Amino acid sequence: MPDRVKVAIIGPGNIGSDLMYKIFRSKHLELAMMCGIVESEGIKRAQSEGIPTTIEGVDGLIKDGDPDIKIVFDATSAAAHLKFNGPKLKENHKIAIDLTPAAIGPYCVPVVNLQELEEAPNINMVTCGGQATIPIVYAVSRVAGAEYAEIISCISSKSAGPGTRANMDEFTETTAKAIEVVGGADKGKAIIILNPAEPPLMMTDTIHVKVKDKTVPFETIKQSIEDMVKELQQYVPGYVLRVPPTMEDDKVTVIAQVEGQADFLPAYSGNLDIINSAAIAAAEKIAEKLLKEGSN
Amino acid sequence: MDNIKITMVDTTLRDGSHAVRHSYTEEQVAAIAGGLDKAGIDFIELTHGDGLGGSSYNYGFSKVSEFDLLTAASSKIENAKLTVLLLPGIGTIADLKQAQKCGAKAVRVATHVTEADVSAEHIYAAKDLGMFAVGFLMMTHMAPVERIVEEAKKMESYGADYINLADSAGYLLPEGVKERIEAVTQAVKIPVGFHAHNNLGMAIANSLMAVQSGATFIDGTLRGLGAGAGNAQIEVLAGVLKRSGYDVNADFYKLMDIAQDSVDPIMLRPQTIDNGSLMLGYAGVYSSFLLHVYDAVKTYELDPRDIMVELGKRGMVGGQEDMIIDVAYQLKNGLVK
User: Fold this and answer.
1) Which among A28, A94, A143, B53 could bridge A287 via Cys, Cβ 3.0 to 4.6 Å?
2) What is the count of structural domains for chain A?
3) Claim to verify: residue A118 and residue A154 sit in the same structural domain
4) What is the pLDDT of residues A188-228, one digit of tens each?
């Protein structure tokens, strides 16, 4: 009986390379292919680690990849996921973990809703800012309801790649929607700021939630947030509260910081670390389930 | 001086929105926009102070939706271009389309001085919508001249109709304005503009230096109403530019009248250089932080100047109002190194 599920990565850029190192640490995942479209640095990096590679993208994966590959991380672009990778992975019965903003499948914030999504053939990892803030929104909404939630995510300029820069609206719109759908707020709003300070600043995330039920004691809300942070820290060890929960009238405010694990990207890239860590957490949970089914 | 034409951009209804804590009503903006239009102002900017979508906990909620305000202003404007501000990361193309439906004809897409590439999708979208588009670089005191030139050229390449350099912290002295405007006017083929803040009392002097250095678009607000110590006072600016021999459309008397009749009555505080504003200029901190710092010191019982100095040290940029709470909390709890 195998103790690991075989996985692949499409897109050997910064995200894909960081994912690779995270998979090497995983108890349940085995990286069986890295897929690119040119002989890039990322492809060479994977080769040097002894990982099979293809430069024919998703087609190379289907054609030459180990048929036992069950889960595929897509770290390309929304357009590529929508047009090629998403449909082809579906056709070939591979579970897709989508790190692009394409969102063919449901939004996944592991600590909030992974349990409901274990059967989904395609899950979307929202955005880095979403992964860092939606757990807090949910922690408030599950005990006191949330009429409105607003997040401000600041990332260092150096950790914002060309994809993020060319698609600022995708970030704000996707995050806002997921604050509603996953976080449980009636209305969501997201703001993203790039800061060029040197040395680069850690990712910071401010979360404001307007509660519905003002009779819920602040201690209850605070406890719910603290419990959530502990759960989140299980897969994002660098997640800490810079400013603990405060409450003013019906507004709860928290400021968090995400320090990355520096697997491939520097520690200030907490934004990339958290979305990748969330994707790995989701994959491990799905892998555990597959392994259990396989052994039955 | 051969009567160089200077285009005046009034932002009382946008930057001034900070000073009235985003409380503008439809009647107020209709009166001010109508007055500015009759006074011959070329561009009238109106949105939340932080641009489209700025209404939030972070920046303060608008009393009246900016789309309703745009509709009200638009009905009173015959000649001027109704203009909106858009900061990518806060406002979106969807907001811009809505603003256009409400009468906006121009958009200024603003980014931190080193981050021009985040404006590409919004400038492209504006041009596709047939709007006049401006590339707006904020906090220009924070980057060396060569970098500003590089970023301005990017915005030019996206299709911007002119480049506006903002001294968002009111930090620059005339020499700093001169070198920036000269370098950018030499590097790009499109016109260059300037947006001053008066935190060090330099707004009019810096604006005059900007036009003497080649800028042909200049920002101002009635009574100087704006973030921090406010902006270049536009009725003063009109007088100064006329006296200096520049060709401006604006009617000097009518601008004074509209300031007195429509702006004086709605001001929440005199637009002076108070201690907080002075500290913004001295420490190089984004002007719209001012009132949020004043709010934070009420909760945390601190000297507003200490918060500003720490914000300046950390290199906070426009839009990071949330970090005021962060700094206040850390100062209060002895966590600042």
Assistant:
1) A28
2) 2
3) no
4) 999 999 999 999 999 999 999 999 999 999 999 999 999 99
Q: Are residues A193 and A72 in the same domain?
A: no
Encode pLDDT of B153-179 as tens digits. 999 999 999 999 999 999 999 999 999
Regions of chain B short of the pLDDT cut 50: 1
A199 in the same domain as A79: no
Q: Does B144 touch chain A (CB under 8 A)?
A: no
Q: By residue range, what is the domain housing residue A191?
A: 128-268
3-state secondary structure of B226: coil
Give the pLDDT confidence of A138-185 residue by residue, as tens digits.
Answer: 999 999 999 999 999 999 999 998 888 988 999 999 999 999 999 999
pLDDT score at A2: 75
Please give the order of strands across the beta sheet that includes A203-211. Answer: A185-195, A146-156, A203-211, A251-258, A239-248
Of B56, B94, B118, the CB nearest to A168: B118
CA neighbor of B54 nearest in space, from B27, B79, B32, B21? B21
Q: What is the mean pLDDT of residues A105-124?
A: 93
Chain A CB contacts of B117 under 8 Å are: 162, 165-166
**Which among A157, A166, A255 is the nearest to B121, CB-wise?**
A166
Residues sharing a CB contact under 8 Å with residue A239, sequence separation 6 or more, in sequence order: A132, A229, A232, A233, A256, A257, A258, A274
In three-state secondary structure terms, B311 is helix
* Residue A256 shares a structural domain with residue A133: yes
* Chain B interface disruption, residue of A157, A165, A251, most B CBs within 10 A: A165
**B-chain residue closest to A243, CA distance:** B326
pLDDT tens column, B179-228? 999 999 999 999 999 999 999 999 999 999 999 999 999 999 999 999 99
| Residues A67 and A158 grouped into a single domain | no
Q: Out of B56, B118, B325, whose CB is closest to A194?
A: B118
Residue A26 sits in a domain of what CATH number?
A: 3.40.50.720
- Asked if A128 is an active-site residue, the reply is yes
A214 interfaces chain B, CB cutoff of 8 Å: no
CB contact under 8 A, B58 and A196: no
Catalytic annotation, residues of B: 18
d(CA B287, CA B276): 10
Question: What average pLDDT is seen over chain B?
Answer: 97
Residues A180, A282 within the same domain: no
Residue B88 to residues A137, A166, A169, B217, Cα–Cα distance (Å): 24, 10, 7, 22
Angle formed by the axes of helices B203-212 and B234-243, to 10°?
40
What angle do the packed helices B304-313 and B322-332 form, to 10 degrees?
110
Give all domains of chain B, ordered by start, each with its CATH number: 5-266 (3.20.20.70), 275-332 (1.10.8.60)
Instruction: Give yes or no: residues A141 and A261 share one domain.
Output: yes
Do A284 and A261 lie in one domain? The reply is: no
The predicted complex's ipTM stands at 0.96
- Inter-chain residue contact A191 with B57, CB threshold 8 Å: no
